[in-house]
Specification:
alpha/beta, Rossmann fold, 2 domains, 15 strands
Length: 311
């Protein structure tokens, strides 16, 4: 089958080639993939991957062969799903617990943006508990997780503040539901006007350190990324003096042991079907051009999500 594989000499270290057909286990469905989306983590992984390696997390498509143990969606079902690796291909074996039925009015392209970005935002906000009337800060707010985080926070009745690097992104994050926008590289001082009951943090480095000082008593900072790749130095005394502040490191694939992807994806797909959750797709192309989009995403030239169509 056609698949995009690691190739250090190609754009984005990725090139269209041929891979072995997946061999589903009893609890896995064989899915014919119609659309995938890219995430910074897997794009970075490609740059250090082994030649010929097949990567990819997010997918949407049609069940070609249901799980042999009878679990999960039936043959012919439209689905959205998540795999630890192998989505950048024509077909994938997907655990039943990582698949959710896709409403007819949600396109494959829109659904493909949900798994990593949507689930990360959803599960991160769940760490904060009840959000009605509470303040939420989202860093890296113009990214895939950030935009879904703002929308889900607003859907929960929270007042969302977005931290972005470029002024031209303000309209986008306000359209997602942010009531306040902070433009800059840092969140320190009074720039973000804390405290916040919940902070969704994906930048790391000095931004993470700043944000820890903006969490309210009884609040939580959920860290799910380090896009800056910089270390953070925190004032431990200030952190302790704030009192009862929780730091939670979220790794999505570990989080799925607490709540299966099928559960969260069903919630997200339902919200999208109702028009209450909107993807922002900044770039889309065919599978063979995945490497080019990966290069653009790695270089921070894409806002929101990049989607590839598998024909």
């Amino acid at each position: 089958m056609r698949a995009v594989l690691v190739d250090a000499n190609a754009a984005g270290h990725l090139k269209l080639g041929e891979a072995q057909e997946p061999d589903p286990k009893p609890g896995q469905a064989l899915v014919a993939i119609k659309a995938i989306s890219l995430n910074l983590g897997e794009v970075k992984r490609a740059r250090r991957g082994s030649p010929g390696q097949l990567l990819g997390w997010d997918l949407a498509g049609i069940v070609e062969k249901p799980a042999a143990d009878g679990s999960g969606p039936k043959a012919g079902a439209r689905v959205v799903g998540l795999v630890p690796s192998g989505a950048w291909a024509e077909r994938a074996a997907v655990d039943s617990a990582a698949l959710a039925a896709l409403p007819d009015n949600v396109s494959f392209a829109h659904a493909a943006t949900l798994p990593v970005a949507g689930l990360t935002a959803l599960y991160a906000l769940e760490q904060a508990g009840q959000l009605l009337g509470r303040r939420v800060l989202v860093t890296g707010a113009s990214g895939g997780v950030g935009l879904y985080g703002i929308q889900l926070a607003a859907q929960s009745g929270a007042l969302a503040t977005a931290l972005i690097r470029q002024p031209k992104q303000e309209t986008l994050v306000r359209g997602a539901g942010a009531v306040q926008v902070v433009v800059g590289e840092r969140a320190g001082g009074t720039a973000a006007h804390g405290p916040f009951h919940c902070v969704l943090e994906s930048v790391g480095g000095p931004v993470l350190a700043d944000c820890l000082g903006q969490v309210a008593q009884g609040g939580v900072l959920v860290s799910y990324g380090i896009s800056s790749e910089a270390p953070a130095t925190i004032d431990v005394g200030q952190f302790f003096r704030t009192g009862r502040v929780r730091y939670y490191g979220l790794m999505l694939f570990s989080e799925l042991g607490r709540r299966p992807a099928s559960d969260g994806l069903a919630v997200l797909a339902g919200l999208m079907s109702q028009g209450r959750l909107q993807p922002h797709i900044d770039a889309d192309d065919k599978l063979g051009n995945l490497g080019k989009l990966a290069e653009r995403l790695y270089s921070r030239q894409i806002v929101g999500k990049a989607v590839l169509h598998v024909d």
